[in-house]
Amino acid sequence: MISNLKSKPLLGALAAALAIGAPAATLTTAAPASAQQGDLDRAVTALRGISTMQADFTQTDRQGQTVAGKLTLKRPGKIRFQYEEGVPMLLVSNGKSLTLIDYEVNQVQRWPISNSPLGALLDPNRDVKRYGKLVPTSNPDVISVEVRDPNRPEYGIITLIFVPSAKAPGGLQLTNWVSLDSQNNRTTVRLRNHRYGVAVADSAFTYKDPRRSSRRPR
Engineered SS bond to 217: which of 7, 114, 141, 206, CB 3.0-4.6 Å? Predict the structure, then answer.
């Protein structure tokens, strides 16, 4: 299975910056505006309350292929997707740009974090409250927030799913997200074993550039 995941479709899904269509929860009629505003405020508070986080993740592309790994997040703007052994890829943000490194073909792709659906998580200038809206769900304990910039559709859409958790900042835990880019590339990322407030050095968001073996980590 791992060898199949090193294909160009997976690379395209990664470059689209991690995604799925609709949340798993069943859509229902909209909640009252006051309730929606309160839940959106809670979700924004939960996101802003994360200083550092580590979690195990699984990532599934639109063909149903899945890889696993470890996510490390440090606000503002830093993230690292360390994929499981046998997947020669790394996705990392240093706070300014999101970089995809493919060690199998010695290829590096880079783009501003603001241009990715992941900007909702990483870009300190992306106003989740301004561009986010609640997606009603059948479970009152599940909060689903869809974030898109109507003026920049090329940035894609990300839907963030939260559930109550006493150990998480703001009392809500980000359990998964689904994102869709402008080319309809979709991927699902699910998180488990969350760990908050862990010490994370900035060096965790560097990488070895495969194009020049003598080049220092970026």
Answer: 206
Which residues pair with residue 180 across a beta bridge?
Answer: 157, 186
pTM given for the model: 0.79
CB 192 within 8 A of CB 71: no
What does the chain come to in residues?
Answer: 218
Q: Which two tokens stand for residue 45?
A: 């508070």
- Say if CB 170 and CB 145 are below 8 A apart: no
The pLDDT value given to residue 186: 84
- Contact at 8 Å (CB) between 52 and 196? yes
Q: How far is CA 43 from CA 2, 56, 133, 150, in A?
A: 35, 21, 11, 20
Cβ-based neighbours of 132, under 8 Å, separated by 6 or more:
40, 43, 44, 120, 145, 146, 147, 160
User: Which of 12-21, 103-112, 122-131, 160-169 is modeled with the greatest confidence?
Assistant: 160-169
CA neighbor of 193 nearest in space, from 46, 72, 44, 45: 72
CATH of domain 2-201: 2.50.20.10
pLDDT band at 37 (very low <50, low <70, confident <90, very high): low
The Cα 165–Cα 163 span in angstroms is: 6
Cα→Cα distances 32→45, 118, 134, 140, Å? 20, 28, 11, 13
Q: In the block, which residue shows the tokens 């998480």?
A: 168
